User: Fold this.
Amino acid sequence: MTMARVGIDAVEVARFRHLYDRYGERFLRRLYTSQEISYAFAAKGARCFERLAARFAVKEALIKAIGRPIPLLSIEVRHAHTGRPIVFCSQVKEKIEASLTHTDQLAIAFVILEVPTS
Assistant:
């Protein structure tokens, strides 16, 4: 038998543009895997910051669902060929489902973690 734990997070996209402008690659390497960085910067223009913000929101939402801090780099957000986000985390054995959305101003993520009951 399992129960669902949920996490949600919302972040302002402008914050990520500001952090990148200020710290550049150092900022990126502390929060994102190389695959996430490549995916984000494949977008045209400022849309890359929407993608970065959305991935950060997923990471924070997962941490909230887990209920304890884990390294952000242990979490990676990829996409299925259908566009659905797939979340990988070396710290979590349970099934992770995620949904994310973003505009030019706001990124929001919702995560469901299926946890076995004892």
